[in-house]
């Protein structure tokens, strides 16, 4: 029986440490993509695959995976259907589509082995075996949920959108002083005027959404996702972003978008600057309660 060794002590063409692929404009080895996406409680963002593994060995709690396109994935549970595992499979799927000759070469082998697999449910050896036996495209269904989530993230300045609903989070104190808020005030003064009118008439409450029409098929949405505004976002002051309010507003946006037949566009890390929110939470709320939205990262 001929066995292809798919690891760093075997054929390096099948090792995640040596296979380079681009994801969201970032080119790294597959292993570096996967490991550096990990986020740990009370630990800095890992700068290398080794640093990420060191955090894990040291017992730091894993919070999830932050991807370069803005998508935040929950921690994996070592199941094939985990989104983080699907991310790993998707990296290999892209790599092998670019290098189909590797599968042609691998087809002469009877078995595929990764001696470092450990608990990981679908290592590169499993990927190569699947691609040899069923074809490279058979990998796509194994990461379809992940690929679908990625379709919600686009590399675009949100203020270049010309059709749809631009969304941003505002406070209930009549400030609108976030970086995006200030840009919106400059480009669309009517939005700030409507916001101030909303504030002075005491109609603004947490979770409400004010739609301001700019022109046909184009609106800006002021989502009241925080009660107060402050430049401070330390632990002592806590988060101003109210997740319940954000959720309520997102549900309303999804409804309004369907009514108007327009897609909401939401900025990456909404409510996570001076609002002090955690993107892993806000991202999950957007994907769950406003699934038609596109998240803009530039």
Task: Produce the secondary structure layout.
Layout lengths: L2 E3 L14 E4 L2 E4 H7 L1 E3 L8 H9 L4 E5 L5 E2 L9 H16 L2 H6 L4 E3 L10 H11 L9 H7 L2 E3 L8 E8 L7 H9 L1 H12 L8 E7 L2 E9 L16 H18 L3 E4 L11 H11 L4 E4 L1
Parallel strand pairs: 1-7, 8-13, 9-11, 9-12, 12-13
Antiparallel strand pairs: 2-3, 4-5, 5-6, 10-11
Helix pairs in contact: 1-2, 1-3, 3-6, 7-8, 9-10
Q: Cα distance, first to last residue?
A: 50 Å
Order of helices and strands: EEEHEHEEHHEHHEEHHEEHEHE
Q: Strands across the major sheet, in which order?
A: 8-13-12-9-11-10
3D shape: elongated
Stretches where pLDDT falls below 50 for ≥5 residues? none
Structural class: alpha/beta
Beta content comes to 15-25%
Alpha carbon gyration radius: 22 Å
Number of domains: 2
Mean pLDDT: 94
Q: Characterize the largest beta sheet: strand count, sense, and whether it forms a barrel.
A: 6 strands, mixed
Q: Which range best describes the helical content: under 10%, 10-25%, 25-40%, 40-55%, 55-70% or over 70%?
A: 25-40%
Number of alpha- plus pi-helical segments:
10
How many beta-strand runs? 13
Explain this structure to me?
- By secondary structure, the protein is α/β, with parallel strands linked by helices.
- The chain has two domains: 3-151, no CATH class; 154-297, Leucine Aminopeptidase, subunit E, domain 1.
- The chain has ten helices and 13 strands.
- It has helices at 30-36, 49-57, 83-98, 101-106, 124-134, 144-150, 179-187, 189-200, 243-260, 279-289; strands at residues 3-5, 20-23, 26-29, 38-40, 62-66, 72-73, 111-113, 153-155, 164-171, 209-215, 218-226, 264-267, 294-297.
- The protein has a six-stranded mixed β-sheet, with helices on both faces.
- Strand 2 and strand 3 form a beta hairpin.
- Helix 1 crosses helix 2 (49-57), helix 1 packs antiparallel against helix 3 (83-98) and helix 3 (83-98) packs across helix 6.
- The model has no long low-confidence stretch (mean pLDDT 94).
């Amino acid at each position: 029986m001929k066995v292809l060794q798919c690891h760093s002590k075997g054929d390096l063409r099948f090792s995640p440490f040596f296979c380079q692929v681009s994801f969201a404009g970032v080119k790294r080895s597959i292993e570096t993509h996967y490991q550096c996406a990990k986020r740990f409680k009370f630990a800095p963002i890992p700068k290398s695959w080794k640093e990420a593994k060191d955090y894990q060995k040291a017992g730091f709690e894993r919070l999830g995976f932050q991807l370069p396109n803005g998508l935040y994935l929950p921690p994996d549970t070592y199941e094939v259907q985990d989104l983080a595992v699907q991310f790993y499979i998707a990296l290999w799927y892209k790599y092998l589509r670019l290098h189909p000759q590797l599968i042609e070469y691998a087809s002469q082998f009877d078995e595929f082995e990764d001696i470092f697999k450990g608990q990981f449910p679908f290592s590169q050896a499993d990927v190569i075996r699947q691609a040899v036996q069923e074809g490279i495209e058979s990998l796509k269904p194994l990461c379809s949920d992940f690929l679908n989530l990625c379709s919600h993230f686009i590399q675009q300045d949100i203020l270049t959108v010309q059709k749809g609903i631009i969304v941003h989070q505002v406070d209930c104190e009549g400030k609108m002083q976030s970086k995006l808020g200030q840009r919106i005030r400059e480009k669309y003064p009517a939005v700030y005027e409507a916001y101030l009118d909303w504030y002075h008439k005491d109609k603004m409450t947490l979770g409400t959404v004010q739609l301001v029409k700019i022109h046909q098929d184009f609106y800006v949405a002021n989502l009241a996702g925080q009660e107060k505004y402050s430049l401070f976002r330390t632990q002592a002051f806590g988060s101003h972003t109210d997740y319940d309010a954000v959720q309520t507003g997102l549900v309303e946006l999804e409804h309004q978008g369907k009514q108007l037949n327009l897609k909401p566009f939401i900025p990456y890390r909404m409510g996570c600057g001076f609002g002090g929110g955690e993107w892993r939470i806000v991202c999950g709320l957007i994907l769950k309660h406003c699934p038609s939205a596109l998240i803009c990262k530039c």
